[in-house]
Write a structure and sequence with these properties.
Length: about 140
C-alpha cells in the first residue's frame, strides 16, 4: 500500500466535494466568480489535481471556506481515521461514560446552524437576483 505522504491531494476534487456539500451548482459558482468564469471552466478546474493558488483563493472566498480545505482534505485519510476510531466488534455503538454532550442540545445547535445556513443562502439568492435584474435592465 502506498504511503499516505506520497499521495497527492486532488484539489479539484476537493473543490467539487465542498461545492456539492454546500449545494451549489457549477453554473452558480461560475456566476459568483465573475464574467471570466463558466460552468465548463469550473468543470475543467474540478478535474485538476493541482489548482492555481489564485483560483483557490477566489473559490474559497466565494464558498466562504479556508483555502486549506481544498489543499489539505484527504478523503481516504478521513475514512481511515473514522473507521479506526470505532470498535469493529460492536454494531457501531461505543459506550462513553464521560460523555458531556447532551444529544438534545446538539440537535438544537445543528438546527440553529441549519437555519443560519438557509438564511445565508436566501440572502445570497436575493443578492444574485438583484445582480441578475441589474444585468437585465442594462
Amino acid at each position: 500500500m502506498a504511503n499516505t505522504n506520497d499521495r497527492k491531494i486532488h484539489q479539484g476534487r476537493n473543490i467539487k466535494r465542498f461545492r456539492e456539500m454546500l449545494g451549489i451548482k457549477q453554473e452558480v459558482l461560475a456566476f459568483q466568480l465573475g464574467d471570466e468564469w463558466s460552468q465548463k471552466k469550473i468543470s475543467l478546474l474540478e478535474q485538476k489535481e493541482e489548482v492555481e493558488a489564485s483560483h483557490l483563493s477566489q473559490i474559497a472566498e466565494v464558498l466562504k471556506l479556508p483555502v486549506e480545505a481544498f489543499q489539505n482534505f484527504d478523503e481516504e485519510q478521513a475514512v481511515n481515521i473514522i473507521s479506526n476510531t470505532f470498535n469493529h466488534g460492536s454494531v457501531g455503538y461505543q459506550k462513553n461514560e464521560n460523555c458531556n454532550i447532551h444529544p438534545v442540545d446538539k440537535i438544537i445547535q445543528l438546527h440553529e446552524e441549519k437555519i443560519a445556513l438557509y438564511e445565508r443562502m436566501l440572502k445570497e439568492k436575493d443578492e444574485m437576483m438583484g445582480r441578475l435584474e441589474r444585468l437585465i435592465n442594462k
